[in-house]
Specification:
This protein is an alpha/beta fold. It contains seven helices and five strands, in the order H-E-H-E-H-E-H-H-E-H-E-H.
Length: 139
């Protein structure tokens, strides 16, 4: 029981960049992340995500949740651009793919682009939150 409290404290206040072009999906994910006391910044496509990340203080974001299929710029391209940025957190920040496609080649593609994990939609938020906890408390 005590351990549970520790793990819940550890994700409170984490800064999440949530990248999603679907309003309903955005709303649901944002609600559930905020319920865990995480701080959510929203981006509606990959280009916006790249800009927001680029303009943030290094180390500000703890995790990026990145939809793959989006207008203007998809999640894979956005991830590649973030990973190429000349700053330490661009290499180390956990980036998780969110997609309706969970085929093996999609997973391979997202890993090749520099993503750490791959979640299929509809999201199982418990799994997403556990993964965030795993990445952000293991450091």
């Amino acid at each position: 029981e005590e351990q549970k409290e520790v793990s819940e404290k550890s994700i409170k206040g984490l800064h999440i960049l949530l990248v999603e072009d679907n309003e309903l999906n955005m709303e649901i994910a944002e609600f559930l992340l905020k319920e865990e006391k995480m701080i959510v910044t929203k981006a509606w496509n990959g280009r916006e995500a790249v800009e927001i990340f680029e303009n943030s203080e290094p180390g500000y974001f703890d995790v990026i949740l990145m939809d793959l299929m989006m207008p203007q710029m998809g999640g894979l391209e956005a991830t590649r651009r973030i990973r190429k940025m000349d700053r330490e957190d661009a290499e180390s920040i956990p980036i998780f793919a969110m997609t309706a496609n969970a085929f093996l080649d999609d997973i391979a593609q997202s890993k090749a682009a520099g993503m750490n994990e791959h979640f299929s939609k509809p999201l199982q938020m418990e799994k997403v939150i556990d993964t965030i906890r795993f990445y952000c408390t293991a450091r």
